[in-house]
Amino acid sequence: PSFKLLLLPGDGIGPEVMAEVKRLLVWFEKRGVAAFNYDERLVGGSSYDADGVAITDATMELAHASDAVLFGAVGGPKWDGVPYDARPEAGLLRLRKDLGLFANLRPAICYPALADASSLKRELVEGLDIMIVRELTGGVYFGEPKTITDLGGGQKRAIDSQVYDTFEIERIARVAFDLAKKRRNKVTSTEKRNVMKSGLLWNQVVTEVHRREFPEVELEHQLADACGMQLVRRPKQFDVIVCDNLFGDMLSDIAAMLTGSLGMLPSASLGEADPVTGKRKAMYEPVHGSAPDIAGKGIANPLAMIGSLGMALRYSFGLGEAADLLDTATANVLAKGLRTGDIAAPGQATIGTTAMGDAILAELDAL
Amino acid sequence: PSFKLLLLPGDGIGPEVMAEVKRLLVWFEKRGVAAFNYDERLVGGSSYDADGVAITDATMELAHASDAVLFGAVGGPKWDGVPYDARPEAGLLRLRKDLGLFANLRPAICYPALADASSLKRELVEGLDIMIVRELTGGVYFGEPKTITDLGGGQKRAIDSQVYDTFEIERIARVAFDLAKKRRNKVTSTEKRNVMKSGLLWNQVVTEVHRREFPEVELEHQLADACGMQLVRRPKQFDVIVCDNLFGDMLSDIAAMLTGSLGMLPSASLGEADPVTGKRKAMYEPVHGSAPDIAGKGIANPLAMIGSLGMALRYSFGLGEAADLLDTATANVLAKGLRTGDIAAPGQATIGTTAMGDAILAELDAL
Ligand SMILES: CC(C)[C@H](C(=O)O)[C@@H](O)C(=O)O
Ligand SMILES: CC(C)[C@H](C(=O)O)[C@@H](O)C(=O)O
After folding, report:
1. B145 alpha carbon to ligand 1 midpoint, in Å?
2. What is the CATH number of the domain that holds A171?
3. CA torsion sign, B52 to B55 to B57 to B62?
4. Of B229, B249, B264, which residue sits at a domain end?
5. What is the per-residue pLDDT across B40-96, written as a single tens digit (0 to 9) for each?
6. Is residue B94 part of a domain?
7. Which residue in A116, A165, A225, A365 is the catalytic one?
8. Rounded to two decimals, what is the model's pTM?
9. Final residue in a domain of this structure, among B241, B264, B287
10. Do the chains contact at B148 and A202, CB–CB below 8 Å?
């Protein structure tokens, strides 16, 4: 088989971690797993510097034509002053919206070898495996009006609009219930129905989808503030958490941080399945950001980006075995005690980005 | 001096913890600290059951006429099906809005004796002392439109509106900077300026208030998702955090949970100072909720409610010495190892709500 990929390394440590993915693509080709044709383009601040926009129309066209997009990270203090519509994040948001990537899957997994890196007590996070299913193309991120108006007399008024339609909640709920069936069969739906009308509708629609289509899955409702608390208190109570765009942004970052494995966590953003081919538009990216403070130093952890390639192999290319290989290689490398700085215990020796890539390749060769 | 109080115990454990406050008011009167005239009324679900609304106009009038309101907690599964406008939370929201209580101060303090109750490692939370300053009368809680519309064909559309004007951000920023000056002189302002126009305005206005009025305070900006992460990772980096209504709801609950002392934490909600008398409308309430699962069992921790009385003594009545007495009594009781269930170490003996009140009174007698 042959697949078309678009690589968008972006800013900060994005290009460094993407470099390791490129070496892996070569390795998988050599092994005869598949042919990977990839284009590489700018996004975020680096695209703004070159072209004055966070992503060009030409790059968007390539994204539409690809089987999967691999995304690094965007942003950094360098672009704090650029016009709002050209800020680095606008590139990411346009990709999500224009490709229709409504379902953002963010696993929060605690790697046993790294449990001590968590700020939580080991017993609370060891073996943790949560899947956060975040709605990604609606809510306050994209609702209109979204304006700042000058009221005169030194006063301005800013407005953002949280808008959700029934069908948007239905389709993300289905993704969550489907995933739960392959996991521990439990979904926690979270919103603020006590203060938000969108929370009320969210609650009703999820309840209805559950009743009609997934009565065999356990469904629980938690207010978003309570859910944040429970994540900190007793994270292992959760299997799948489903929530809107903004709550998902916060809760998934908190869950990721709990694991102590932030530099390890990939994510997938998926569109609706094509009714004919069954294919979904898809983008894969690490949960961590562009980390401008360590960019260019060759010390970033490439494993979340490599894990994102693994998710692409599995979910977009149907190459589950290749993805398993990659997971095993990663587990072995960790078991050998190889660590980048972010996941090292105090006093433990660390290696850089390329050395970690080397180690993964060596493991793959040995498998 | 003589003060008028309105006690609103509310639902769940609210009445149980408020009972201990009433005994303390009697004690302070007997000691000649001040005369406290208080009325007691229903709010939340219990008000709905009696009067069909979450708070009556007559009770609101009493609230307006009081020097301070002491609020217990509202809500519970019993009222899940009541009409939206009559839901228990509507009583709390009306109090906040109609009294103009725009500044919500939520301390997140880790009591050394309770550090082991935190899910975080002791060294990360021991001595933690964060003040979250949450905007409380604006944002998505109150913005219009706030609607659910039937679009036909089984589709509904829910809309919530996040609205902030310059003056609303200015006044809450001032509260945060003022507090920081009496603490460790650092403010972290948090928003999502990368996706929300209100975040952009928030960032600009806080920056401007800082430049013009508080250049001597250290100001730092963090995106709300990053702030959530940092709270979990390294909470002691924070002194004062200032944020909007919705982010404040989430971040303050997470911060409270980090401390392991949730059942210990009071909060204050303050209005603008009257230009003539300098007095502020004020409401004091525990950070914890109505805990329906343990209501009526006599085991709730009254210390957050008692701490809320302490904040009222200090901030509304100018009775700092009485507040100090109460703090000392609480510290002594904890030092003696007295614990309600929520703050007990595994295997440690526990006492009930009334016994904890008894212990505080006994300490006060001995001081
Ligand atoms: C970069 C930013 C726009 C983005 C978001 O808020 O969605 C990021 O925080 C994320 O979670 O992917
Ligand atoms: C009860 C609810 C309306 C309230 C809020 O969301 O503000 C509560 O969570 C709080 O934080 O005081």
Report:
1. 26
2. 3.40.718.10
3. positive
4. B264
5. 999 999 999 999 999 999 999 999 999 999 999 999 999 988 999 999 999 999 999
6. yes
7. A225
8. 0.96
9. B264
10. no
